[in-house]
Amino acid sequence: MVGFLIATHGGFARGILDSIELIAGKQERIDTISILHETSIDVFGKELTDKIVELDDGDGVVVFCDLLLASPYNQATMSYRALQGKHEYRIMSGANLPMILEALSGRMQDLGLDAISRMAQNAGKEGIQEFFEEFAKVSNTDMIQ
């Protein structure tokens, strides 16, 4: 089973996991890690690496980070060098609820690491919508029919 790690600044990761559990119930092989004001970057990096190892049962791990090229993301890339060949994982930025829920759906379908990553990326992008733009599309479609 593909594991999931949500790595963010502050309490964002825990909030995402709380929301996931509210919507989809308690999940297996999913964990969070947060960098806080008092967190040493070296300690954070080691803990992130340890969590990837812990979550990987052989099917790989998706690491969902809040920001591209920020500390959680950068530490995940640095962990890749340390774990190369031992643990397969994907690093995704822009973590949001739709992408992780879609990843859970892919995991329930027993899809592999790459398929789950693609699904999550697409859902993350598609989950960002502005109400009035979408309403206008629907309204225009209704007028045509």
UniProtKB/TrEMBL annotation:
Chief location of this protein within or outside the cell: cytoplasm
Domain annotation PTS EIIA type-4: ranges: 1-128
GO MF assignments: kinase activity
Keywords: Cytoplasm, Kinase, Phosphotransferase system, Sugar transport, Transferase, Transport
One Pfam assignment: EIIA-man
PROSITE patterns attached to this UniProt entry: PTS_EIIA_TYPE_4
One GO CC term, this protein: cytoplasm
Localization annotation: Cytoplasm
GO terms (BP aspect): phosphoenolpyruvate-dependent sugar phosphotransferase system
SUPFAM superfamilies: PTS system fructose IIA component-like
Protein name listed in UniProt: PTS EIIA type-4 domain-containing protein
Taxonomic source organism: [Clostridium] innocuum 2959
